[in-house]
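Why this split exists: single-chain examples teach little about how molecules sit against one another. For that reason, every record in the complexes split bundles all components of an assembly together and asks for one structure covering all of them. Below is a record exactly as it appears in the raw files.
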Amino acid sequence: MSSNFVDDSAILTVNQLSKSFGGVKAVNNLSFSVKENNIHAIIGPNGAGKSTLFNLITGVITPDTGEIKLSNQDITSLRPDKIAERGVSRTFQNIRLFPDMTVFETVLIGTYLMTGGKLLPAVFRTKSFRNKEREAKERIEEILKFVGLWDMRHEYAARLSYGNQRRVEIARALATNPDLLLLDEPTAGMNQQETKELMQLFSQVNNQGITILIIAHDMHLVNTLSNQITVINFGEKLVEGPPEMIQNHPAVLEAYMGRAEANA
Amino acid sequence: MFIDQLINGIVLGSIYALMAIGYTMVWNVLRFINFAHGEVYMGGAFVSLYLLLLDTPIWLAYLGGVCAGALLGYLMEKMVYMRMRNAPKLNLLIAAIGISIVLQNLAQYIWGATPERLTSPFLSKNIAVGDMLINQHYIFIIILTILVMIVLELFINRTLMGKAVQAASQNIKATQLMGINANKIISITFAIGSAVGALAGILVGPVFLVYPTMGVFAGLKGFTASVMGGMGNIPGAMIAGLLLGVIESFAAGFISSGYRDAVAMVILLFILLVRPQGIFGKIVQQKV
């Protein structure tokens, strides 16, 4: 039924995707699509396969079966750098920065795709290389101002506050010029103020035309930020729909709180 | 006597420093010790020697040796280590030792086991400094080592690709997801580290001769220097290499040349006991 469905407005289509780890089905025959310009949330209990799904989409691991399409291009089993090149970027559940790099240098790494990372033009500093390098620097400035870290650009990223480290990760992801940004529990461990500010940032990112796929536990965040929610449990899709529909869906309540509480 | 030993030590230390660069760069991106690095040192020297036998101009023969070393490092990564990316690190280590032995035997099969001297345009000339004579080839080694360090520093810190190598050293997964091909970065790392290692072998060739097992001790010393300097720290490895050379040289001059290696190893043990993170290393917090 759900196989080979085509949705023209979908930027990401996941079709009958499965991945097992030693007999445990982390993702099981999962199909869903993300509409362009949406903020699409993936929710589900711990161990539901959400992070595995992100690792599959970004090519960190390869699926056992199924396909992943970006716009209408098949990206299943491509190398992570090739998928990044096609416009998918991400942040990690556990922040992954470069411990010995400043904020500016970290975001510079994200512009590698822009300048091409070719060695010879860099050594001989060809005109086109210098132009690209200047563009990259302007872009970094623009991004750092956008996320509010421009004043901290010379500080070591890993020494910033937790909330600001997350901003560095987002800035680095934006530097690759993504069409689709994957955020893996971006507000986990943040205080209320940080969470609020990050939510504003996500809307602003989205307003720039970047589609967001977000994993989150915070139902308030999901309900206010997203316009489509996919609930997964045990690697399978439970329900999908807009927040109003998901909030009171019995299957969701059951998955989250267990049968007894759901009836209470 | 003192100055003599100091200069000998700096020359020896330059070689160790150049070797240490290769171990350190590979450690940074793959977290493993390429124990076949000594054979890149040997291979580079042999290729230069062979090119000279073919009447190649000396600079071209040196350059050929360096390129051959880079190629050798690149190939061992592509043909063996790359295929073991997800294997336990112990497998890589054993593979490296295997490659090392195979290359030693291959060199012996092709070129024979008799030590041969690589020519140097400087070896027979001396420079007078005060009332002392310093061999020009020694000066050549020191100048080239400084040059390599400067170029490497510029590459690592001033080019985006160098930055990408640093990023890969610090978090290879996140680096890949920024659109950077990790395999390409690893290949470049192997090629550069091996080119520098081969250069060390070529520079040593006119002084300590070229033979199939020449890389064994040089490799061990380079590895020692990289541990002393704080594993993964390139400037640290270079300074530790110089230090190791000077200490050895003084040990040879003032104690006995027979015990130079023992003295060097005692110092290594001492450093490992007192500063396990190496002289210039950072303490890494281990999660319990």
